[in-house]
Specification:
about 350 residues; mainly alpha; Rossmann fold; Tyrosyl-Transfer RNA Synthetase; three-stranded parallel beta sheet; 14 helices; 5 strands; about 50% helix; about 10% strand; elongated; binds tryptophan; binds iron/sulfur cluster
């Protein structure tokens, strides 16, 4: 795991509770692949969840546990990657504070997600210090592990870009003789197909249109039955077009070539009905979800097991983060401990 020749990857997910298929194809599936090739750190961003959901925190812990269970279900393996909880590595908060000192307000006000979310999320007051500082905390998350790569979706690329600018500014002020203290991380844009939910809009928990990784087969089939189709295909005898049908989109992502060919042919010629077509998508989804749910069950039956994985991961993360913070404090001229014999320190009292 600590193989120095491997590039380091870091990414996080807010603790939003049970994950859906969009989270899987947009991130998790990619992470599972990466853990074989990189030195991976993945964390549950419970502090980031607080930046918007600060007023009601009764489900915060449960939501973190659900994310963890879905990660393990999807195949993240504690023998191959480090999984941890942000709030269990308090050094993120210390670095966030220090980075906040050097981050110009204008940089934060210009972040696209800041404006967007303040305009779109009207039911919560996002005029807080913490919400404005969201990307600074994210920069701390990334820089404290000296990550080479940060796999993210498109909406997060601006945050990684800002992280690079903060790193550059920090190095400019404090690196001194050294080439740098923080490495500028690179965003790895996860090639994510747009995944439609049952109403045809982008799959999202807040739209209530999501297929959850934990949905049992009958629920998957039921949700698909209610899924919208090509609006031109009203009757069974109408011809349709899978390229404008959300069910067609799901086929392209989850079905094999043979099924896709059958759908193309059958839909355009009215040779198949939508009910049949949807049952094929359901078949494909169940095949992906079944092994996940099987794996999840092991941890659901024994929650201690999952929690122990998170605790061990957090301990490992604290070690790595702690080493970076030692460097950072020293570079900034902050509190060296009295028995640190480094030359940057004030001379020891020799009168004793
Ligand atoms: N902001 C990210 C999101 O909403 C989650 C996140 C927090 C993150 N810290 C991170 C992602 C660090 C990558 C790296 O999806
Ligand atoms: Fe959509 Fe399938 Fe119906 Fe065609 S047959 S409109 S692809 S659900």
């Amino acid at each position: 795991m600590a193989n120095p020749s491997k590039k380091r990857v870091l990414s996080g997910m807010r603790s939003t509770g049970k994950l859906h298929l969009g989270n899987y194809v947009g991130a998790l599936e990619n992470w599972v692949r990466m853990q074989d090739e990189y030195d991976c750190f993945f964390f549950i961003a419970d502090w980031h969840a607080l930046t918007t959901d600060y007023a009601e925190t009764s489900r915060l812990k449960e939501n973190s546990v659900e994310v963890l269970l879905d990660w393990l279900a999807a195949g993240l393996d504690p023998a191959k990657c480090v999984m941890f909880l942000q709030s269990h590595v308090p050094a993120h908060a210390e670095l966030h504070l220090l980075l906040s000192m050097i981050t110009p307000l204008g940089w934060l006000e210009r972040v696209p997600t800041y404006k967007e979310q303040r305009e779109n999320i009207k039911e919560k007051d996002l005029g807080t210090y913490g919400f404005l500082g969201y990307p600074v905390l994210q920069a701390a998350d990334i820089l404290i592990y000296k990550a080479d790569f940060v796999p993210v979706g498109e909406d997060q690329v601006a945050h990684v870009e800002l992280t690079r600018e903060i790193a550059r500014r920090f190095n400019g002020f404090y690196a001194g003789e050294r080439e740098y203290i923080f490495r500028e991380p690179q965003a790895l844009l996860t090639p994510a197909p747009r995944l439609p939910g049952t109403d045809g809009r982008k799959m999202s928990k807040s739209y209530g249109n999501a297929l959850l990784l934990t949905d049992p087969e009958p629920v998957v089939r039921q949700k698909l039955k209610t899924m919208v189709t090509d609006p031109a295909r009203v009757r069974r005898t109408d011809r349709g077009n899978p390229d404008v049908c959300p069910v067609g989109d799901l086929h392209k992502i989850f079905s094999g070539q043979e099924t896709i060919a059958k759908v193309n042919e059958g839909c355009r010629s009215a040779g198949i009905g939508c009910i049949e077509c949807k049952s094929w998508v359901a078949d494909a989804l169940v095949k992906i979800l079944n092994p996940m749910q099987e794996r999840r069950k092991k941890y659901e039956d024994n929650p201690r097991l999952a929690w122990d994985i998170l605790e061990a991961g957090s301990a490992r993360a604290r070690d790595v983060a702690g080493a970076t913070m030692d460097e950072v404090r020293k570079a900034m001229g902050l509190g060296c401990s009295p028995n640190d014999s480094s030359k940057d320190e004030p001379a020891k009292d020799s009168t004793k």
